[in-house]
Amino acid sequence: MTIQFFCPSCNDIIGFPDKHAGRRARCTNCGQFFIIPSENYKKPKKVKLQEEKGDPLPGFYRAVFVDNWKLFFDSENVTSLAFVITVVCFKFFTYGSPCCAYVTHFAVWGWLFGFYLNIIYETAFEIDKLPEINLGTSITFLWYIIKPLFLFSITMAVVQLPCIIMYIKLKEQGLSFDDILHSEFALLHVLFIFGLFLFPIAILTTSVGQTFTMFRPDYLLGPVFKAFVPYSVTVLLLVAAALLEMRTIQYTGAGLLTTAGHLAMNFAVQVVAILAMRSIGLFHRHYNCHFAW
C-alpha cells in the first residue's frame, strides 16, 4: 500500500510504500527532509539537516564485508534471490537465440538495473533486506525496464560529460578514433577513468535523490574527498562486478561441466553486483554527515 501525504515545506504531494513508514526521506521538489508518516495525509515531521549532521556512523567496512553476506541466507530474501536466479538463467539460456537475444538482454538488464537502484535506495534508508519483486502490469512492467536503463544511461553520460566534450572537440579536428586513442591524448583517458570513478556517487544521487537537479560538483565531489577510502571500496566492488561480467560466457551448448561453470560465473556477477550496490547505499548511510543534500 502507498502512503500519500503533503510535503511539510512546499506542500507537494508525495507517495511512499507503507514499508518505509517512520524512515527519513527527502522531497524531490524542494529538498526538505522529513519522517515518512504511517497514515495517509498525516503531516510528516520535518528533519533539519543540522540535526542530522555529525560524525560518520562507524562500522562501514564490517557492514560491507561481513553483514552484507547475511542477505544471501535470510529467509526474507528467498523470493528476491530466486527471481534474480531465474532472470540470470533466462538470459543465459536464451543468448544463442537469433530472434530474441537482444530483446532478452534489454529486458533482463533493464529489470536488473531497476533492482540495483532499489537496493541502493533501501540500503541508504536502513532497510537491511533485498527489495521486494514487483513486476507490475504489462504496461508498467515495460516501464520498469525502460526507466532504469534510461537512469543508468543518463547518469553515466553526466559523469562522462567532460570526456564526451573533449572527444567531440578532437573529432572536429579531423582525428580518427584510433588517433584519439593514441597515448598523446592521455587527458581523454584520465577524464574517462575519473568519470567511471564518480559513477557510484552519481548513481547514489540518482537513486536516493531521484532527480538530476542534484548533479552539482559540490554534491558529487564533497563526500568522495571527505571519505575517500570508504568511497574507493564502493568503486572497487563495482569495478569487480563489471570485470566479472566482461569475463562471463553465455550458453554455447558445451558440455555439462563447462555450462555449469559459465552459469556459475553469471551468478557470481550478481552476487558481487548486489554487494557493490549495497556498499553504495551503506556509504550514504554511514557518511551522511558529508552530504550537502
Account of the protein in words:
The protein is mostly helical. It has two domains: 1-51; 53-290, no CATH class. It is built from eleven helices and five strands. The strands form two sheets. It has a three-stranded antiparallel sheet with strand order 3-4-5. The protein has a two-stranded antiparallel ribbon with strand order 1-2. Strand 3 and strand 4 form a beta hairpin. Helix 5 packs across helix 8. The longest helix is centred in the C-terminal third of the chain and has 31 residues, at 256-286. The mean pLDDT is 86.
SSE class: mainly alpha
Total strands: the figure is: 5
Helical stretch count?
Answer: 11
Number of domains: 2
Shape: globular
- Indicate the percent of residues in helices: 55-70%
Major sheet description: 3 strands, antiparallel
The averaged pLDDT comes out at 86
